[in-house]
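Feature request, filed as a ticket because there's no other form

It would be nice if the structure record came with a short human-readable summary line next to the tokens. Right now we just get the raw output. Example of a typical job, pasted below so the devs can see what we mean:
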Amino acid sequence: MQLARPMNDLSPMIDLDRTRANMRRFGTSEDQSGGNVSGGMSASSYRDRDMMPIRPMSAPVPSSAVPSNPAPVNPVAAPVRVTPQPQRSVADPDCNGSFEDLDAAPLNLSSEPPAEPATPPAPVPEDVAPAESATPQPQASLSLTPAVMRRIILAATTAQNAAPAFGRAQANIGGRGLCFGIGRFCQIDGSLGVYLQACKDEDAAAFAARFTLKDQDLSEQLLQVCTSDSESGRMAPVGGQELWSRDWIAVFKEAAKHPAFQDMQFRAAAETRLIPLVDVADQMNMTSERALAMIVDRAVQTGVAATEALIRSNLSAGNGTRQNIAMLAGLAAASDLPGRAPQLAVESGPSDAPLSLKPEME
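Raw output as currently delivered:
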């Protein structure tokens, strides 16, 4: 342990017997600290201001300077002045952390009265601007930019070192109709319509050319069905076939090879799986990329409404982020659709830095 001032300055004046007695007085001894007097000190020992003061002693005199017939010296009458050293932080290897300013004031080892206080500095002239504060300003937290949302969605939907499954399809699992892409965009909740609308807005010509069935341009009919206001309307067949038929699944898989439509999967996932849950995530202190990716995973697996109900029923706003992350991971692992949430809770990739949850769409 490094002392508050250099050991060389104090060692000639330390009474070791008295120091050991003081250590035993506060519950620490050589036997308790393994032979190291200072190594076993507790934090309360540092803070105690009533320890027995160190007895000042006369400074040693070099042998060359001692006269042949030295006069007797009264050690009390010989004043000793020691310039106090500036106080520093002490990092104790036996403690977790560091201690600042171990003493309220520097040790005064002088037998003479303290000197008069220094003359205060002259006032700064009015025409001189004061120096700016050197206090570092807190770094602004990241916001939900498209790039950040893309990272969150990619972590939630794709295993590490794997390629995104843009062409993944599920055929009417749980009565949800066709569920497609990395965001598991489904007919029944309208998220598939959001994805198709984004594809058309991005590249209308490619949208019309790729969403055809048996040489029929059914792109407009497909979009009209999938963006219907009612669940029954969104579940209607297109071109005489259900969207989860083998022919339509082949059409969707082929269209997903278009790079522009792949980008639209990230945009649709942000709009339908992430942004609707931003408020509840903020309330539960789930504001890091890791926490948001876990929430997106739940939304992909079970839908937005079920995810919000799960969070509000099981997480607490009084918990810290890590505690709520652990709870959500346990809930996911115990469910029929664990998804990626249990892995996301422990993977090294996602960031744990808090985000300012203000989505910024392009």
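Something like this underneath would help us a lot:
Strands lie at 90-91, 98-99, 142-143, 169-171, 178-180, 185-186, 212-213, 216-217, 355-356.
The CA atoms of residues 169 and 180 lie 4 Å apart.
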